[in-house]
Amino acid sequence: MQGSGRWHRLAWMGAAAACVVLAGCASSRGPAPVEDRAPVNGAGAASPAASGLPTTDASGKPLPGIENLGKPGYYAVRPGDTVRRIALDTGHSWRDIVRWNNLDNPDRIEVGQVLRVVPPVAGAPLVPPPAVAGTGAIPPATTTPVTPPVVAGATPPAKPAGNPPAASGEDDLGWIWPAQGALIAGFDDAKNKGLDIAGRAGDPVLAAADGKVVYAGAGLRGYGNLIILKHNNTFLTAYAHNQALLVKEDQSVQKGQKIAEMGSSDADRVKLHFEIRRQGKPVDPSRYLPARP
After folding, report:
1. What is the 3-state secondary structure (H, E, C) of the chain?
2. Whether domain 183-287 has CATH 1.10.10.10
3. pTM for this prediction
4. Is residue 243 within 8 Å of residue 265, measured between CB atoms?
């Protein structure tokens, strides 16, 4: 009996020790981290080494574009990324991303692969071609005017009469509301990247400003039937959960034009989810849209 009691005490102590070890492991693990997408435009993109992403494929061959890792304007593909999602986050057409990176299949990109997400010639100066010797050919003028040197004592050339027109602000696109229904959810940087507007199936969805269709389809999970318009080099707008799309990619649209019919695709009710993205980053549309009466 004494041996039996001793065995039970030892077993109990061993079980208690195991519980302590398991509790320590659980506490050290903590809650699952929430993914914070690294910036995809500019120099702040996370490197594969820093984020645990691979730098080679299964055969040990370096992943495409890995030589550009960490350079401004490049992005390392993360789990769950698609070309269309990256294009939305960078404010470009997905077709541009495909072209800039010579992708054979836009639906096949590898985790850790480094993609160019800015135009290859962005900011490059215009260089005129040299004149052909002996032909008298004059190279075409560049878009940048050349200022003649000032000669001491000479009268400077007269400036054109009047002042040049002031450049309009890049934010001033004459925005309008894309739908007339009640606002059911406002912008929340953590939970809702735009505005949710109620309505009935088939209600018109309007272009909020002049622009060009850079995406029309259902390839982005969570958005349903989606249209993305590019308005200039700064702004995109997104129109999600439609039941019907009335425009095609590369089509130019006018402010107020009906581009879709409201629906409930990939949503729990009929509504329009509307986003304004400034240089790829979601911003509060209420800052740009006119006040409602």
Report:
1. CHHHHHHHHHHHHHHHHHHHHHHHHHHHHCCCCCCCCCCCCCCCCCCHHHHCCCCECCCCCECCCHHHCCCCCEEECCCCCCHHHHHHHHCCCHHHHHHHCCCCCCCCCCCCCEEECCCCCCCCCCCCCCCCCCCCCCCCCCCCCCCCCCCCCCCCCCCCCCCCCCCCCCCCCCCCCCCCCCEEECCECCCECCEEEECCCCCEEECCCCEEEEEEECCCCCCCEEEEEECCCCEEEEEEEEEEECCCCCCEECCCCEEEEEECCCCCCCEEEEEEEECCEEECHHHCCCCCC
2. no
3. 0.63
4. yes
pLDDT in tens, 208-227: 999 999 999 998 999 999 99
The answer to whether the CB of 55 falls within 8 A of the CB of 65 is no
Neighbours of 98 (CB within 10 A): 17
Residue 289: exposed, middle, or buried by beta-carbon count in 10 A (0-12, 13-18, 19+)? Answer: middle
Q: What is the CATH number of domain 48-116?
A: 3.10.350.10
Domain residue ranges of the chain, discontinuous segments joined by +: 48-116, 183-287
pLDDT tens digits, 70-119: 899 999 999 999 999 998 888 888 889 999 999 999 889 999 999 999 99
Instruction: Give φ, ψ of 277 to 5 degrees.
Output: -120, 125
